[in-house]
Amino acid sequence: MPFEYLESIPGADEAFRAWGTDLGQTFSAAWQAVHGVLVDAEAEDARTADQRRAPPPRTAATPRQRVVSLSASELDLLLVDFLQEQLYLKDSEQVLYQVRRVHVRRDGTGWSVDAELVGAPMDTAGTPGVDVKAITLDNLRVHQTARGWEATVVLDL
Amino acid sequence: MDDTRGLQRVDTAVWELPIGYRSGMRVPVRLYASRSLMETLDEEVLVQAANVACLPGIVGYSFCMPDGHRGYGFPIGGAAAFDPDTGVISPGGIGFDINCGMRLIATSLTEPQVREVLHELVDRLFQAIPVGAGRTGMLTVSPDQFREIISEGSPWCIRHGYGVDEDAELTEDGGAMPGADPTAVSDRAIERGLRQVGTLGSGNHYLEIQVARPHNVVDPHAASILRIDRPDQVVLMMHTGSRGFGHEVASGYLRIFLDVMNSRYKLGVTDRELACAPFGSPEGQRYYAAMQCAMNMAFANRQMILHRIREVFADLFHRDPFDLGMHQIYDVTHNTAKLEEHVVDGQSRRLLVHRKGATRAFAPGMPGVPDRYREIGQPVIIGGSMETGSYLLVGRPEGAATFYTTAHGSGRLMGRRQARRTFHGTGLLRRLAEQGIHVRAVSRSILAEEAGGAYKNIDEVVDAADQAGLSRKVVRLVPIGNIKG
């Protein structure tokens, strides 16, 4: 997955760098990084192949689908709003969504994102991780690189 | 100069960073810490405290408590008072978890009585109290009922049978903030909070079973007024806040302030997490009214958890919870901004005091201290890590120097990811079990983030607060059981 959690930002409860060849991929990777905090990725990795093949403990619900469209004056603030949507949906619906498709574009003087999400109820989404309190503005950065786009985000846990 | 960073030592546990440390500072920074705590202090804390000192309308000093560590915007352990007419309000000075706080509950049980059933008790509490990300709470309420809860706070719960009047009386501000206006709260925030009343959360939020051992009672008289009056008495401590509701209020208004602070109010800040608005502006007033709603949500949240704890004890011990001495000792908030009266240069002034990871500690006899505690001062509940213990303190007159503010916890020394790499959940569980501490957590890997070694030494933090005159020790509490998300 094109993201890595960072220890190089002192004082950050959690921080990550996400990247992609275009902004859509970068936004999608950042979403996945937040998802990886809400679900305990290490505990999931520790599950055996048999456990992972075993049927989920509860009846799998029909996947939920959602469309999200957001605009912001700045690209980095658009990413914050986009990631904040995951926290909102987690609490308001108790559903953890993944990004199925995402498109980021310039919109006049600002930026817009349109995304299709597909989700599963939190109690079937894996081992619970840590609740994320906020997508912060601390050390926030979205910038173009030789290979595409890269974002740095700090989370308050 | 006493320190290469430009700090001047003012007293044994008081340090000052003068106005010249960085340009734009309106007041000096005052830090409260022992020399050894100062030696481990992250340089960025000084920068953050100095940034706060640049905000318009700040009065006196930008303060940093002994547990100070790097936060977002303000340092955690930061406090600052602003003139309500000329100053600002900043969500970054309160924190994303509005009214994150501590509640302490007495029992008449002693350690041997609880040890007999400790595992079952911890397991039952873990089952009964929703913990971890995304868990729904104990109440099913409509949006209108939720608006009532955030308008009223703890008294709403008590009115509906989830507690007794004394619980609210022994909560900071009676568990009900004036001026809470649900119309200042976004629908998104209400949707997030609707199912979260009575949920513990995760991260460093917990419910702990603790013991007051006789040798840890520093002031037996004050302890007895605080209902800690028998050897090896068991108490319960919880740490949680306003959950996703408060997080949404804070994040939403941070963005609103970011949009207007420069364009409308010509306010510039070096760190966007310090986004602010004049307290008297429409945006400032609306945030304050919404923040009061989040304060009330957190008080109600802790009240519902208290109710559930009493149910678990009554069920397990087959006795009425009040026969088990389950009175609330006190409830404090450590992420807030409050309008308070303080004396500045001999004049009484109304100030908006921001406390982020810092606890109000009113002195004996002050208005706002419950009658029961008027003689000893406002109780202060300081939570340590699950390995090291916690404290019950009281406010004192010398606290006037910080507008009656003291520490709130141990303060992080190590990042969560670093802690997870350094300590291992399974090993920590084993070590805790060897010390007689039974823990139930949603995830073992996350448990490691809360290892004692990831935090500052709680004894050193509390001693520094004591030495600096910010608060006075009453009893040290040691854990025997813990549940966490």
What can you see in these coordinates?
The complex is a heterodimer of chains A (157) and B (485). By secondary structure, chain A is an alpha+beta fold. Chain A has a single domain, classed as Archease, Possible Chaperone, Chain: A, domain 1 (3-Layer(bab) Sandwich), CATH 3.55.10.10. Chain A has helices spanning 23-38, 41-46, 49-53, 75-93; strands at residues 3-5, 14-20, 64-72, 95-107, 110-121, 134-135, 141-145, 148-156. Chain A is globular, with a radius of gyration of 16 Å. Chain B has a domain at 8-84 and 340-358. In chain B, 31% of the residues lie in helices and 24% in strands. In chain B, the strands form four sheets. In chain B, strands 7, 8, 9, 11, 15, 16, 18 and 19 form an eight-stranded mixed sheet that branches. A seven-stranded mixed sheet of chain B has the order 1-2-3-4-5-13-12, sandwiched between helices. Chain B has a two-stranded antiparallel ribbon with strand order 6-10. Chain B starts with 7 loop residues before the first strand and ends with a strand. The mean pLDDT of chain B is 95. Chains A and B meet through helix 2, helix 4 and strand 6 of A and helix 8, helix 10, helix 12 and helix 14 of B.
